[in-house]
């Protein structure tokens, strides 16, 4: 048996801080108004730890009212299971009062205990709200019975079985990648379509997918935690929280709705969004055909913003009325024409974070075969576009997410002034219907002119940003393009000068800390800011938003914990 120094498990308060939990409590005012997990439950699957029977969390660490069940039936306590449990249902966590924790041992779960891999039996019904898998596996080629299977064939059967069960039962499954940065994703479960693939914000196994159509955008979502096993638990806890919040609301409780709420709530300010370090590994990037960053997915979990999205309410596509700046829609009907969601952002407001996420399931259908089940798979091709709009007519295309292979699309933008826009969800005209959930969050501020970093003063820090992106094109407010012409140049510097509020220099060229002195300090052209004199020479770069921590590589084994 494994001993624990404290009677009760804890999730590190810093992890709760990083996921916005205390921001949420401050915004709501009364923590008693928040979900506590009662009414939802979890299937907690663990790889054997130390001994083959070690896969159970220690119930003494958790609320005595939680029912602990051993689904596999031969378990003893596992320190790994208990630590992962601390990140999901610890007494100080998001859902301390969940009804039931049902534990399974990974090999049993893959076989007769649940999934019936490579068998003619279908997977059991998922009857727990969320399933947590803080373990990974890559299969070797092997003969089972008299049939030879490649490792890829075994892995693909597992992925299809899991996606089938998720779509059939409409339940949330969270699984991690393992900790080694830059290493490709293991067979299971990071490659599954319908799960939430979890990672850590500092970088772990990197996408794209490696199996069942390589090249897709994974992982999906990052969390601040010490390793990927714990990050997976953190995201499972957040999924349970959202499921509890949406109890009684069919549309809000779809598994893909939870996935959309968590993904659209995620933030990117933890990453280097302004190229302030040369290192590309601390950046967050995506493209029009690769919706997510291949290291950190959509960004870092933020339960405050996901709560905000859900509670803003379901708002339907319409050609006669607008939706709000924050909201969601769970659509379930035949659609052929595009679904449009018109949004009006006041033109004096700066968009500081606009995150739009479209999620739907891959459909998997079993085909009876011998000796194993075969699977028909179909992924509808939905796309996401953002247009400028006049009235209820779309005009200029602003952004698009048009992957042909993913079951997620994602638009993200910041640093532009408000305007009238429309989010458009479309489906390939030859395709069949899919139900989807769309979640969006547009945050704005009314900025002080010249205040590039939005800290309420116009000073040398703002000028430094302009300097570090001098002559940059395709720029936005956060790069120092204050007049929205896409270029960082003398005109933007002039706006800073005209609005200078630095202490000791309340306006252009007055006293200590003046605009001219700041220009001089930064090596920028001094005197008349409009004289068009050449660019800077030596520019102090702003500090990096995040530093990359390289985690110790684990040895490769056939099956292992993700940490
Ligand atoms: Ca960088
Ligand atoms: Ca698409
Ligand atoms: Ca400022
Ligand atoms: Ca400009």
Write out the CATH superfamily name of the largest domain.
Peptidase S8/S53 domain
The residue-averaged pLDDT reads 89
Query: Largest sheet, if any?
Result: 7 strands, parallel
* Tally of helical segments: 12
CA radius of gyration is: 25 Å
> Low-confidence parts, pLDDT < 50 over ≥5 residues?
1-6, 505-512, 528-560
- Ions and ligands: calcium ion
Fraction in helix:
10-25%
Q: Reading side by side through the largest sheet, how are the strands ordered?
A: 3-5-1-6-10-11-12
Do you know the CATH topology of the largest domain? Rossmann fold
C-alpha geometry: globular
Structural account:
The longest helix has 19 residues, at 151-169. The strands form seven sheets. A seven-stranded parallel beta sheet has the order 3-5-1-6-10-11-12. Strands 13, 15, 20, 21 and 23 form a five-stranded antiparallel beta sheet that branches. Residues 1-6, 505-512 and 528-560 have low confidence and may be disordered. Helices cover 21% and strands 22% of the residues. Helix 6 crosses helix 8 (255-265), helix 8 packs across helix 9 and helix 10 packs parallel to helix 12. It has helices at 13-18, 21-28, 79-89, 106-110, 151-169, 228-245, 250-253, 255-265, 303-312, 460-468, 490-498, 515-522, and strands at 42-46, 54-56, 67-70, 76-77, 100-105, 130-133, 135-137, 142-144, 147-149, 172-176, 196-200, 221-223, 326-331, 339-344, 350-360, 363-367, 374-378, 382-390, 393-401, 408-413, 416-417, 420-427, 436-445, 559-561. The chain is globular, with a radius of gyration of 25 Å. The protein has three domains: 13-303, Rossmann fold, CATH 3.40.50; 314-445, Jelly Rolls (Sandwich); 460-522, no CATH class. With 563 residues, it is an alpha/beta fold. One calcium ion (CA) binds at residues 481, 483, 485, 487-489, 491-492.
């Amino acid at each position: 048996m494994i001993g624990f120094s404290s009677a009760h498990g804890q999730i590190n308060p810093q992890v709760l801080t990083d996921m916005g939990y205390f921001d949420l409590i401050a915004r709501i005012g009364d923590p008693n108004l928040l979900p506590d997990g009662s009414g939802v439950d979890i299937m907690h699957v663990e790889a054997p730890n130390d001994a083959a029977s070690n896969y159970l969390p220690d119930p003494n660490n958790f609320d005595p009212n939680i029912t602990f069940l051993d689904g596999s039936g031969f378990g003893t306590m596992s320190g790994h299971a208990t630590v992962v449990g601390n990140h999901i249902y610890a007494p100080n966590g998001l859902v301390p009062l969940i009804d039931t924790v049902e534990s399974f041992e990974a090999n049993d779960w893959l076989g007769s205990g649940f999934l019936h891999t490579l068998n003619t039996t279908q997977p059991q019904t998922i009857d727990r709200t969320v399933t947590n898998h803080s373990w990974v596996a890559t299969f070797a080629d092997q003969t089972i019975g008299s049939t030879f299977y490649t490792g890829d064939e075994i892995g693909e059967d597992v992925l299809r079985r899991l996606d089938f069960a998720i779509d059939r039962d409409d339940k949330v499954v969270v699984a991690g990648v393992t900790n080694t940065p830059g290493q490709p994703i293991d067979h299971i479960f990071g490659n599954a379509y319908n799960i939430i693939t979890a990672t850590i914000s500092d970088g772990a196994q990197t996408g794209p997918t490696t199996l069942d159509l390589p090249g897709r955008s994974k992982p999906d979502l990052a969390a601040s935690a010490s390793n990927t096993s714990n990050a997976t638990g953190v995201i499972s806890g957040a999924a349970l929280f959202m499921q509890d919040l949406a109890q009684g609301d069919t549309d809000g409780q779809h598994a893909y709705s939870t996935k959309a709420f968590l993904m659209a709530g995620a933030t990117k300010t933890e990453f280097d969004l302004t190229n302030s370090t040369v290192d590309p590994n601390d950046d967050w990037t995506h493209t029009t055909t690769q919706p997510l960053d291949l290291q950190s997915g959509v960004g870092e979990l933020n339960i405050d913003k996901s709560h905000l999205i859900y509670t803003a309410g379901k708002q339907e596509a319409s050609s006669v009325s607008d939706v709000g700046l924050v909201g969601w829609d769970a659509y379930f009907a035949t659609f052929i024409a595009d679904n449009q969601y018109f949004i009006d952002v006041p033109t004096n407001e700066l968009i500081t974070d606009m995150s739009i996420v479209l999620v739907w399931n891959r459909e998997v259908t079993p085909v009876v075969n011998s000796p194993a089940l075969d699977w028909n798979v179909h992924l509808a091709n939905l796309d996401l576009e953002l247009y400028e709009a006049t009235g209820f007519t779309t005009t200029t295309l602003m952004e698009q997410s048009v992957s042909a292979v993913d079951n997620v699309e994602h638009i993200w933008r910041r640093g532009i002034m408000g305007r009238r826009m429309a989010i458009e969800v479309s489906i390939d005209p030859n395709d069949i219907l899919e139900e989807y959930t769309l979640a969006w969050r547009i945050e704005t501020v009314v900025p002080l002119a010249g205040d590039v970093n939005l800290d309420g003063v116009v000073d040398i820090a703002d000028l430094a940003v302009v300097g570090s992106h001098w002559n940059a094109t395709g720029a936005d407010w956060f790069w120092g393009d204050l007049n929205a012409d896409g270029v960082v140049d003398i005109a933007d510097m002039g706006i800073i000068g005209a609005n200078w509020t630095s202490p000791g220099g309340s306006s252009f060229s007055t006293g200590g800390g003046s605009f001219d002195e700041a220009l001089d300090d930064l090596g920028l052209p001094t005197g008349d800011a409009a004289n068009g004199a050449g660019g800077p020479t030596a520019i102090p770069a702003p500090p990096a938003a995040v530093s990359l921590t390289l985690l110790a590589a684990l040895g490769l084994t056939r099956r292992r914990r993700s940490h």
